[in-house]
Amino acid sequence: MSVQLIPHPSGRSRNWYVRIYVPVEVQDLVGQEEVRRSTRTANRTEALAVGASIEAKLRAEWRQLAKTKANAHAPRDKPLPLTPAAIERICASRLADWAMTDDDRVTIGIDDEDEAKSKQHSATVSDDMRSVLARGPKSPDWNHVAEMATEYAEDMGHRVAPGDPLLPQFVRAFAQAERTAQEVIATRNDGRDASFPVPDAPGEKLSVMIDAYETHRKGVVDPKTVSKSVSIWRRLIAFLGDVALDDVTSNDIYRFFHDRLHAQTDNWSQGYVDGHAKRALREFFALARTQGRAHSENPLDRLETTPKLPKKEQEKRLKPRHPFTTEQLNTLFASAWYDLENNYLRGKMTTDLAGRYWCPLISTCHGLRVREVVQLVNSDFLFVDDVLLVTFQTELTGNDEDEDDDALPERKLKNTAARRTIPVHPRLCNLGLADFVRLMQTQHPPGTPMFPSAIPEPGGKNPVWGRAYEQAFLRHVRDKLGFGSGYGNHSFRHQLEDRVRDAQVTHGAWPAGLGEFLTGRHLPRAADRSIFREQSSAIEYGDGYSPARILRFVDQIGLEGVVFPPPYAKWLAREAA
């Protein structure tokens, strides 16, 4: 149990409050999703102790409510097999519950009548447990203690089957824990000091999975994806505490998602909870089970639903990605980004005029992902029968990877479909791209980056191509041009896909799969499936379309109404078009 302290909601009091989420199954009975109680102290250490006491009492009440409701209405969960670790964990929890309950009794104090009742209860329970431990299943108290043990286990989310082969072992362990607790209480009732021997819950903690997961995923997916998943796991630890892996229940996951959806800052969207967050947590627990660090069921497998935001709130949290309109492209090409007399840019983009000029234009004509354009090298281009081709690939042709001092960082593509060779749009050649490529190929060795600003700084932990351009361009369109959120480098890709669709409406449907091939997709967007021809699994075989033969289709991608900047040579010379 992890106590969550919060300040007074309105700030009128310095005292800490404890926030406790009501279990989903009794929210309809309690009438609210969370409860806040004052600890009546501004001392955080004291507040944690008081908060734990408050939470323990409320949860005891809610467990009873849930039990009553479950017996009356709800179908019971499937039994879970007992294991030695599960038995140890349940019994440790029982001792911890007794410790908390009796610590409260001692702290608050009791009168003569309560003291007499406590002594009588301890004596009776001790006798029952002694009988079970001495006589086993033949004890007249066996069935009573077995029922007590299995009910407590079910309260912890572990329903025990009546015929479980470890049930006798569990009942005896539970009886020993109960007898130990009553002996401590009896000692305290005699006025002597005694402590509960509460063992640590067995099993490894949540935190051990961070290094294990990073090792498991290293080199399989990009570091950003690993970091995002680890961040989710760390948030779970911050919410629950660094508890044992086997102690996490589906209700804990539900409460965690509820907290993230309703957080005051940095809250999650519904799609993020139902998508990446669920997948990441499921994978962490699956890895823990596979490596023998956890033995209970994966709590994500028992999470049959997630908390939901109202539809309007879900829509508000969506992060839309808008395509550039023709008017917006014209605004961009006429803006300070292309005004060399008004060079307001800073850093690498101040000197990398080629990247500044060509990256937006190539992205406009080919709808590239930002990493595809910034990591281009001169050997990615090839002239075949006067047709300029470009290959999007991760190999650095001609670059000597053995020379560590000169080695470039690894290039990456989103997926296998992104690797393709296509003809360069004629409009780009008219603007001078073919001449620029020839210059780069004659003056520099193969494997030389086309845009120097795209090369990551040496020594970085996770080097990313083109960060300087990516961030500068985003700030320009979002803030300088005032396009707002939803616009950025991805907007080139979305506008190009719209133009590919329009080209097929105007000129007729292209050969099956060609539209996806040009933009580096496996499948068309849902919005385009009524326009594009169906493609079969044949797209998975061979090298795709012959690049030179699809030039006429590329030329059909209309750019009517787009006012481009002057050709590259004139732009560099600061001449008018």
From TrEMBL:
Q: Under the GO molecular function aspect, what terms does this record hold?
A: DNA binding
Under what name is this protein listed?
Answer: DUF6538 domain-containing protein
Has UniProt tagged this entry with the keyword Manganese?
Answer: no
- Membrane-spanning residues: none
Q: Name all DUF6538 domain ranges.
A: 12-65
Compositional bias (Basic and acidic residues): 294-317
User: What's the source species for this entry?
Assistant: Paraburkholderia guartelaensis
Q: Which residues form a coiled coil?
A: none
Pfam families per the UniProt record, alphabetical: DUF6538
